[in-house]
Specification:
Layout: E1 8-28, E2 31-54, E3 59-79, E4 83-105, E5 111-134, E6 139-165, E7 168-178
Antiparallel strand pairs: 1-2, 2-3, 3-4, 4-5, 5-6, 6-7
Organism: Daphnia pulex (Water flea)
InterPro entries: Autotransporte_beta_dom_sf
Protein name: Outer membrane protein beta-barrel domain-containing protein
Length: about 180
């Protein structure tokens, strides 16, 4: 009996580009001033360790742990006659767990198409600073806040991989993380 494709333990690597965005509410004295849309982008790289099994009917189930480094960054600057706003965001590393159900097609050159679902944790740093004119004293007032936190999010996506040679596959995937 021939060995089924995409079965067994695996060690993998990912290189990619992360694109994202978020909305930040800017407040002053507990009053909402504005909601800011911030777009982010950066390079990511990850290592993964997991396992997969292909059933006789072609159904596939895989999963694994992964972790990596990202250079996801975003900034927003707004100036007006009476105030300035600077918002900066940086995500430096992440880890998580993915489950990947799918199906395998092809005998000679098998390809697996799969969905991706899981949970991800990312270390993020936020920096917000604003400068405004104090009308009572006619001075510029600088206020700021910096916070670091580990965010938990849900991952969903889809991907495909093809066997390049025995034990080596090459693939493409799209993953959306919502923190």
């Amino acid at each position: 009996m021939a060995k089924k494709p995409f079965c067994g333990m695996f060690l993998g690597g990912d290189l990619g580009v992360s694109l994202g965005g978020f909305k930040e509410s800017v407040t002053q004295d507990q009053t909402l001033i504005e909601k800011v849309n911030v777009q982010s982008s950066g390079l990511t790289g990850a290592l993964s360790l997991g396992g997969a099994y292909t059933f006789e009917n072609g159904l596939f189930f895989g999963g694994g742990l992964y972790g990596g480094l990202s250079r996801l960054q975003a900034s927003h600057h707004r100036e007006s006659a009476s105030s300035d706003l600077d918002l900066k965001f940086k995500s430096s590393n992440f880890f998580g767990l993915h489950l990947q159900p799918g199906f395998v097609v092809g005998k000679e050159t098998p390809v697996v198409f799969h969905l991706i679902g899981g949970v991800e944790f990312a270390k993020c740093k936020f920096n917000i600073s604003s400068t405004r004119e104090d009308l009572a004293t006619a001075n510029r007032v600088v206020e700021g806040n910096t916070s670091s936190k580990r965010l938990r999010g849900v991952s969903i996506g889809a991907g495909m991989s093809g066997m390049v040679s025995k034990g080596i596959s090459l693939g493409l995937k799209f993953i959306h993380n919502r923190y």
